[in-house]
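It would be a great kindness if you could assist me with a short task in structural biology. A protein sequence and the structure tokens that stand for its backbone fold form the material at issue. I should value your view on which stretches of the chain appear to form regular backbone elements. The record follows directly beneath this note.
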Amino acid sequence: MAGFPIGMIALLVVSILIYFGLAQRILDRMRLTDKAALAIIAAMIIGSFIDIPVTTGTVDTSINVGGGVIPVLLALYVLLRAGTSKEWIRTIAATAATGAAIWFIGSRIMTGDPGAPFDVLDPLYVYPIVGGGIAYLLGRSRRAAFIAATLGVLSLDISNYFYLTSRGIGGTVSLGGAGAFDAIVLAGLIAVLLAEVVGESRERLQGGPVTEGRPEELVRGLRKPGLDTKDGAEQQPDTEETGKKAAGQRDDGERSGGRE
């Protein structure tokens, strides 16, 4: 598979995990079904070969379907499923901070100047790692982390467009295309995996969730879809603030991955 885009490889690996039911927990928090997730992955792979022209002239601009259109639509869908205005605000702030960090690294640290110490690093890996990490730290939930990571990395292409147009420099900008597709995919995956692994580890260390004193609106809005506890109680939210139910308190539906 030498020379095969790393973003494609990552999507194929994720699709295999989804197919064998190994990503149900994450999909539940993202409010996606297995079929919907696989359809999105297929659309991203196919769409990565399609560029839609946006502007022509000094700067020829296009948007890639797989790396631009679909991630934005998916991020909007996930954002609309957020439980409270607090999560909306946190998501927007995390997206802005992730975009700013990526821009700073690209324009101030990895400048492309000969002999620059950090230019030995590959942006394909630096942007997703930094973007995914910041998105998780500020977004905290899986949904917020995913949105902030994907849109934060995508915003680098947008900033490049405004940089070229503001200075009258000719060029070509493909929003979400070329190497940005790989970086967007990897950033989203890293952010979600951090939210899952770190969040689960913290819960286990503290012996269970912290839910007392949390707003009812937050708990109700962030419920896992299609699940009910034995007593009809509210289901676990997707934030580290409220945590998740302890393993011993999960019903049979949760132990099976929470799928109907």
Q: What stands out?
A: Residues 179-206 form the longest helix (28 residues).
